[in-house]
Amino acid sequence: MGEVILGMPGQWAHDYREKADHYTSKIGGLPDWPDLDIPVSGKLLLCDLCGGKLCLMAQIYAPLSMAERSIDERVIYVLGCMKKDCGSNPQSWRVLRLQRCKQDIESKDEPLKAEQPEEESTSVAEDKPTSQSSSVKVCDDEDSDSDIDLDDLAQALEQAATLASNSKKQDGTKHTRKIVEGPVAKKLIYDLTTPVLPCFYIYSQRNSSEGRMDKANFVGGSSISLKEIEKSSGNESEGESWEGEAYEYDKALGADRTYLKFKKQLDAYPEQCFRYSYGGNALFPVANVPKPGACKICGSARRFELQLMPPLLYFLQEASDDSSNFSIDGWTWLTIIIFTCPKNCCSGTCDEKSGNSCRCIVEEEAIVIQDD
Fold first, then answer.
1. Most confidently modeled range among 92-96, 175-179, 317-321
2. Which of 24, 65, 219, 334 is the most exposed place for a label (fewest CB within 10 A)?
3. In the chain, where does DSSP find H-type helix?
4. Is the pLDDT assigned to residue 85 strictly greater than 90?
5. Burial letters for 328-364: b for 16+ Cβ neighbours within 10 Å, e otherwise?
6. How many CB atoms within 10 Å of residue 194?
């Protein structure tokens, strides 16, 4: 069984619709799609029950390193419908696996290329930094041994100053490479038609048996802090404590052994928003678990990868107010469990470009919802 990585709440986004990148793990906001070779089908972003647009619940950067291939470009998107009539019906939820595989010989022209992860990993916890960290380069020019004319130097400094001025006008992310080109400008265009949940970033930590805070790498940016969440809900005089108001577990379910095991793990880290354990075991609050089914491409039995936990709903509720244009009242689930294809099928696209990275693919995976 693989180790368990916990997704813990970090800082709130300055703007719930702000653009990050697909290397960023977060809750809410808008999906950060990479520069795709193929577009995401519009049908995948619509609710099967009401036909309305789905909102992003979670975006989790989850690269894999396997014997036969590495998948550095891999993201799990969990989407749900906020309409009360749809609620926790599995048909109103969708899980998308977006990936681009890397072969032994790299392509010379890879629009999604990023620097290699620091160490081999099969979890969401310790992989390449986001675009908001050290992976971004300000300049891609190579060093030269030739003499530089003073006029050329002055012109270069002037251009650098112009680029620096333009970068300050960006939306807060540090995408400085090719800053004057079109793709960067698009990051400032907000999608005002898609429903959006309050957005906060995620950092990861290993799950330890003692329940001790064991912080790992930040996933959503170097400035993420758990205290940002605690400050917004730390007034005990108003009776807004986590245990007292948000979830009354013993009243919600019978205290059977399955549920008590679930509650014990939840109490060890009461702020965990998701649990990630590729190929590991899920935590079930209810004993009767529907089977996730087989992969539609290869027929392999899907296996557990991650699950969303109820504290996630608590933090979203804390962000709501009378002026909010969203409602999650219809969401009463205790956990949402994601199962994915163990072979990470690419619909044959890896073979189409032998020796190169395959193009981006988007596949729908299985979701199991356990309600209270």
1. 92-96
2. 65
3. 150-167, 182-186, 227-232, 249-252, 257-268, 311-319, 349-352
4. no
5. bebbebbbbbbbbbbebbbeebbeeeeebbbbbbbbe
6. 14
Lookup: tokens for 296: 């539609």
Instruction: Give the phi and the psi of residue 260 in degrees, each rounded to 5.
Output: -65, -35
Q: Extract the tokens encoding 194.
A: 């898609």
SS3 state of residue 338: strand
Which residues make Cβ contacts (< 8 Å) with residue 132, sequence separation at least 6? 20, 21, 24, 173, 174, 220, 221, 222
Q: Are 79 and 196 in contact (CB under 8 A)?
A: no
3-state secondary structure of 45: helix
Angle, CA of 41, 44 and 46, to the nearest 5°: 120
- Name the pLDDT band for 300 (thresholds 50, 70, 90): very high
Global pTM value: 0.68
What's the mean per-residue pLDDT of the chain? Answer: 72
Q: Count Cβ atoms below 10 Å from residue 147 Cβ, excluding itself.
A: 6
pLDDT of residue 145: 45
Output the six-digit token pair for 303.
């296996």
